Amino acid sequence: MTKAERTIGTPGFEQAPDGEGERSADASREAGKASAQTPEAVADGSDAPAPGAGDGGTAVPRGRRRVLVLFCVAALAYALDLVSKTLVVQHLEGHSAIRILGQYLQLEAIRNSGAAFGIGQGMTIVFTLIALIVIVVITRLSRRLYSVPWAIALGLLLGGALGNLTDRVFRSPGVFRGAVVDFIAPKDFAVFNLADSAIVCGGILIVLLSFRGLDPDGTVHRD
């Protein structure tokens, strides 16, 4: 049978040349696999993302929001800060510093009326207002939060802000004028606490995520 005869069959049906049907089927299967999962979904922990339209590489997630992750991280950071400060006030305040790594790291209880690492002494009210604004912004941002790394970063910020805000509200000399308890004292460095550490770690993580092009809603921007 000639090639021309093989193309003649049922009316309205034209048989594809040899090999082209198999190649089309293989291409369809590969396209289905590519659309089922994108690298961005694995990278940011989003559930079942779908490619965005017209943005050349942005993945829009379709899954659960990560609010629970945010508040769990915030609760853990806040609890650790609160417990550590309670122990410091009860057992370390008014006593000599405890050496952890000789002269390079020690525990020394001090009261700080400024911001993290002793910055802005005497501006307690200002930093109280800043902490309140940060908490409100993070709470509003959580409505469109689909990225696990962003949830962790914002949770660290929220827990740290709440930890120091608790001191400013409830500790002496008065409401919104209270001094923060600091106790981690590295050599030749400012004294700080666990809330300060959580804030700094959350800020660094946010910077890294921004450099990667990952947004809180799980979308990834490619330059």
List the helices and strands and how they pair.
Layout: H1 3-6, H2 20-36, H3 39-44, E1 50-51, E2 59-60, H4 67-91, E3 98-99, E4 105-112, H5 124-141, H6 148-170, E5 180-186, H7 194-212
General description of the model:
The protein has 223 residues and is mainly alpha-helical. The protein folds into 2 domains: 3-60, no CATH class; 67-212, no CATH class. The protein is built from 7 helices and 5 strands. The protein has a 3-stranded antiparallel beta sheet with strand order 3-4-5. Strands 1-2 form a two-stranded antiparallel ribbon. A hairpin with a 7-residue loop joins strand 1 and strand 2 (59-60). The longest helix has 25 residues, at 67-91. The radius of gyration is 28 Å and the shape is globular. The protein starts with a helix and ends in an 11-residue tail after the last helix. Mean pLDDT is 77; it is low at 3-16, 33-43 and 48-62.
